[in-house]
Design goal:
The complex is a heterodimer of chains A (115) and B (112). Chain A has 115 residues and is mainly β. In chain A, 0% of the residues lie in helices and 52% in strands. Chain A is globular and about 35 Å long. Chain B has strands spanning 5-7, 10-14, 19-24, 29-37, 43-50, 55-58, 61-66, 71-76, 85-93, 100-102, 106-111. The chains are: A mainly beta (115), B mainly beta (112).
């Protein structure tokens, strides 16, 4: 299957700093990428949908100024957690699709810990 | 919340037994997908069933879909210890950019 690479796999940062997470589709062009957040032992919550070359569409309750998403090319989307706080600590996962529909391929996830 | 429910939340069985997990969803869908997640890792796609399909097989996996009840089931036959993981259903919503709305997941433990 298609490969989606997410980096870093884990990061620890201090409160108030910003963290960037990258999501790359390695062997296909992804018109749409998705960012999810997962709390321990819980399901994935969709944060935003990212389309190449346009602004991301955020889900209700997700602060777009706090979680900056950039999808500058068909193979790369980034999520920047700005002014991170301990409550932002979570597992963040991206996914990418070949087209607008169908199977999504997931990155390995990023464990963010804000201290 | 758009999230569906999965049943059971946790399931523990012996190797060789079958494991059945159920999922309900709330929206109209294009398809329903099942994913597997090992602890602290990303998700791996298992199988996709379209809204006009009722049953689908892939190896030891069997998926059913009942759109009238907005429910799906995943059956893993002849389970192995390596099947131990969390399993999530994801409803692919209709309209616009198709989103995947995930269920709460079932944590499956297969004991050797």
């Amino acid at each position: 299957g298609a490969v989606v690479s997410q980096h870093p796999s884990w990061v620890i940062c201090k409160s108030g700093t910003s963290v960037k997470i990258e999501c790359r589709s390695l062997d296909f062009q992804a018109t749409t990428m998705f960012w999810y957040r997962q709390f321990p032992k819980q399901s994935l919550m969709l944060m935003a949908t990212s389309n190449e070359g346009s602004k991301a569409t955020y889900e209700q309750g997700v602060e777009k100024d706090k979680f900056l998403i950039n999808h500058a090319s068909l193979t790369l989307s980034t999520l920047t957690v700005t002014s991170a706080h301990p409550e932002d600590s979570s597992f963040y996962i991206c996914s990418a699709r070949l087209t607008g529909k169908g199977v999504a391929f997931f990155g390995q996830g990023t464990r963010l810990t804000v201290v | 919340s758009q999230q569906g429910e999965e049943d059971p939340q946790a399931l523990s069985i012996q190797e060789g037994e079958n494991a059945t997990m159920n999922c309900s969803y709330k929206t109209s869908i294009n398809n329903l997908q099942w994913y597997r997640q090992n602890s602290g890792r990303g998700l791996v796609h298992l199988i996709l069933i379209r809204s006009n399909e009722r049953e689908k097989h892939s190896g030891r996996l069997r998926v059913t879909l009942d759109t009238s009840k907005k429910s799906s089931s995943l059956l893993i036959t002849a389970s192995r210890a390596a099947d131990t993981a969390s399993y999530f259903c994801a409803a692919a919503t209709q309209g616009g950019s198709e989103k995947l709305v995930f269920g709460k997941g079932t944590k499956l433990t297969v004991n050797p």
